[in-house]
Amino acid sequence: MLRADGTSVLSSARSADEPPVTIPRAPAREAARRELSKRMYHENDPNLLQRALDAFWDWLDKLFNAASTATPGGTLGLVVIILAVVAILAALWWRLGTPRRQPTSSATLFDDRPRSAADHRAAAEAHAAQGHWNQAVQERMRALVRALEERALLDVRPGRTADEAAAEAGRALPAHTDRLRAAARDFDDVTYGGRSATEQSYHRIAELDRDLERTKPQLAASSAHSTAPNARQGAAE
Questions:
Q1: Lower CB density within 10 Å: C or N end of the chain?
Q2: Can you give the pLDDT at residue 18?
């Protein structure tokens, strides 16, 4: 075949029979990388936040699949376990209440209105009759401490906390130390810990209040102090 200018195309035909020109692998890979790094190829790529979310969901999917494989019953068994854990956490939150950061012993036991032990007991019984156990526990604990103050087993101190009252009363009535501490915890849990009192907790404090009324204080420490001057006087004679 001849062109208009008389030149032959046989040279082109012969060149088509020759092997194609090849490029080494490393330069070809670099050239492809440069080409694909151009902005025109990445205009529709997801943004950084979308890529992070996609990576998170991929990880979560792999984790869920691995857990369902290791759990008896597969995916259904894993769902049942998750629901059981959620139910347990909800029951604990309902029973214990929302955690409070405020220390339980930071507030005082009594308010600014001075009342007798009998007044606090009457208020406690009125709350208990209506099933208001939180208020009943608070008033009975106040009655208990006020009664100890009226018997001069505790000094009258308006700023005293329930924990301090229990610790001081335990020194005068050591047989009831543990019960006094438990009563103080019940008072703090109800008043400052966001927990709900029960009928049983109220009756425990009421029974402790009655037992303390019949208990005589431990006078060993005071008797030791009173005998010490006599002993020194006898030694001087």
A1: C
A2: 57
C-alpha 122/C-alpha 116 separation (Å) is 10
Amino acid, res. 188:
D
Within 8 A by CB and 6+ apart from 223, the residues are: none
Contacts of 150 (CB under 8 A, 6+ apart): 116, 117
Backbone φ and ψ for 204, nearest 5 degrees, come out as: -65, -45
21 band by pLDDT with thresholds 50, 70 and 90:
low
pLDDT in tens, 117-146: 999 999 999 999 999 999 999 999 999 999
Q: Is the dihedral of CA 50, 52, 55, 56 positive or negative?
A: negative
pTM exceeds 0.85, yes or no: no
Residue that is written with structure tokens 């009831």 in the block? 176
Tell me the angle at which helices 199-214 and 133-150 cross, rounded to the nearest 10 degrees: 10
DSSP 181-208: HHHHHHHHHHHTS-PPP-HHHHHHHHHH
- Owner of token pair 């303390």: 212
How would you classify residue 191: left for phi > 0, otherwise alpha for psi between -120 and 50, otherwise beta?
alpha
Instruction: Find the mean pLDDT for residues 84-106.
Output: 64
Residues 204-226 pLDDT 10s: 999 999 999 988 876 654 444 44
- Could you give the dihedral angle defined by the CA atoms of residues 138, 139, 143 and 144, in that order, rounded to the nearest 10 degrees? -30
Q: What is the DSSP letter of 73?
A: T
Six-digit token string for 129:
């009759």
